[in-house]
User: Fold this.
Amino acid sequence: MSNGANALIQTLVNAGITTCFTNPGTSEMHFVAALDTVPEMRAVLALFEGVATGAADGYGRMADKPAATLLHLGCGLGNGLANLHNARKGRVPVLNIVGDHATYHVPFDAQLQSDIETVARNVSSWVRTSKTTAALAQDAVEAIATALGPPGQVATLILPADVSWSEGGAAREPLALTPPPAADDSAVAAIASALQGPGKKAILLGGRALRAPALMALARIAAKTGVQLFAEVFPTRMERGAGLPPVERLAYMAELASVQLSGLEHLILVDAKAPVSFFAYPGKKSYLVPDGCLLHTLASFTQDVQGSLEKLSSAVGADQATPMLQAPKRPGRPRGKFTADKVCKAIGELMPEHAIIVDEAITSGLLLPLYTAGAPHHDLITLTGGSIGFGLPNAVGAAIACPKRKVIALAGDGSAMYTIQALWTMAREKLDVISIIFNNRSYAVLNVELQRVGAGGAGDKARAQLDLKNPAIDFVRLGESMGVASRRATSTEEFLAAFEHALRTPGPHLIEAVVPPTLAGLKLRVLPHLLQSLAKLPLPVARALKRAIAP
Assistant:
């Protein structure tokens, strides 16, 4: 027998959970002490809970298993909620361990006492407060099984201090998980019939459907049937690049996504939900499936994606079809005036094989998919839940999950400041991450949204809420203060030199790319009118405009 904390950590290791992102307090000290008794557990300190939860999200996306977080009471969990929201929306496995006051101390309503279970339920599919040391390890086993899914989920185990420090704990082995079922024969037959019939068809892919084995099966199906392949707006993890099937992502702006989906008679979902607008806009649709389009589900979040695709491939006679694959292609070295597009072009030209791109560039990264389409095989991680401040922490988790791969994190200046403490963890852990921060000194995407929602009367006071010029943020000094080698680029040549240096030099690097907003001035004022006109234009013209705005 051991104390609860020791039994808990050993139970996690028994299940293959060997990384814990921590921001502990007093109630977690016995867990902290027990870390030294289980050498297989790697503990990674974060200076803010949102970094710990975002790192666990990035780790889960790349490792396909949960990392643990160690958080201090309800307030600490609350600080980490934004990135747990992104994990929940991305169906990523995460296990939170949240310390609580000792069970006998709770009735006194001490200063840090809160309803942790209520806080946790906002992002967690499974929540439990362990009541006894003897039951703790079994609670952990059930939490791990829930987190693994499918789908991957956030599970939160609340650990009272006396349950942690008391003797009587015993580690447990993980539960044997039942493999998920593939699509049933009737669903496969109905979808095969739709694919082989008349009309325009598309398959919308999310989650596990955007990994290489699934993509190859889908490409064979597309080659045989002519069905178009789309990816969700913000994929959890998408494998792409030379040698893989090209897949077009749905556009963030609903008007552009509607152009992509226009004319569909059948839309088939594979580990994805039906497309909806990111926000509500006056006078515009929220549900983006075209009127009259039939919706089919081949594989839901709880089903076997690969098995379902193999059944569909056989049903349409595509097993021997030759898939269309992306040819190797680099965009060339950028030249001329320094803009966010030149940064994206440089990444496409220079990125190494098997890089991991964590993309939170939002408007600054509009051309990234175009310039990296033919780059070497890489993984793309995006902002699944829309809650900013995910990019730098996700890069921490991805780098720890895949220590032999270069991680390139793209963030805006505003979003980077939400979780800038992630740089300190990168330096402490010597992670091979290049953080590129687009400094356009504004919440640029919100300037776009201010125009799109039709909020009239916006003057100087309104625009000041989206402006980051005064005082100017110095990311080089911030990065250096946290131990990260940092450089500023104000020209294309300076950026290329900084990026090439970071690519050949292991360890964390920060590049502050001082660029103008991608959408500003006349472009920004015209954009809402252009988007509104798309539905009235001939479809070929609308598609050409879509490609010009968001390739």
In short: The CA atoms of residues 396 and 447 lie 29 Å apart.
